Amino acid sequence: MANVFLSYDRVNATAARSIAKTLEKSGHSVWWDQRIHGGAEFSREIERALGDADAVLVLWSRESIESAWVRDEAAAGRDRGRLVPLSIDGTEAPLGFRQFHTLTAPGGKLSAPRLRELHIAIDTVTGAPRPASESAPSRWRISLQSVAIVAIVALVAAGLFVWRPWSVKHGDTVLSVIPAAEHPASQKLANELTTKLSELNASSALGVRMVDATHSKDADLLITVLASSAADAALTLKSGRDSSILWSQEFQQPSGSPADLLQQLAFTAARVTGCTAEGLDGSIRLNASALTTYLKACAQLSEIVTASTRPATPLLLDVLKSEPRFTPA
């Protein structure tokens, strides 16, 4: 099992203790600062424990996002590809960490499904093998899918990949677009994006059921829109079930026209929404880490300015390494 470094703010010590005990009962070795021996040099022992960790589990909360210690420890995990973020009070991860799928455990309580998701996330960053019950399909099926994988990657590398995953029908998925802040620019952009996505939906290119912001509590997926300036914006895709962040990206105006920025936002939101439905509701369900990587690739493939889609190739390869049975529709 994994050697887990637990990063948290001291205000959240009760939640941290509960999570540590749960993971230890599951067989993991958990290091947290209450294990520092008397007389030890605090920062040096933390640095050593971080270096030895197979996974860095960060508990995001209202307090921890303000902690320089927690941010530094999270950055160390991120830079080593070992970060496993977990929100214990619904707080969004700070800038620099929002591209990672954040699990949730209200008050540090891990229900059976949440604990299973956490185990999968830890196994993903540590490269642990899957249980026999989740073994790969038969050899002939892997071979056929390997051919499809090679073809997809080759097309992406050649810049010829025109697959539109949002055309897959997921009619039961309910989507809502809401402003991330109560100021006119964000509200205006959210309304414009809603209109654009509704147009795509009407032409059967999106295949979801859209509801307006007043009914956002009924949505399966939420897209929050933040207009930071006239030429910059950010989109965040969240789960309507638990508000966990699935994907986030900042955008700059492509060619000096607000219409161009809106078009880019609409294309990206449509593709990422379709990819999310595919990754969560398809015949092969992606784990949290693979889904985050897949959504990054989907966003890259929606770029309307640069002709090259080569940056998406390594992302797709990472997804397929994590889940060889998954193939885009």
From TrEMBL:
Keywords: Membrane, Receptor, Transmembrane, Transmembrane helix. This is Toll/interleukin-1 receptor domain-containing protein. It comes from the Bacteria. The keyword Transmembrane helix applies. The keyword Transmembrane applies. InterPro entries: TIR_dom, Toll_tir_struct_dom_sf. GO terms for biological process: signal transduction. The chain crosses the membrane at residues 147-166. Residues 4-101 form the TIR domain.
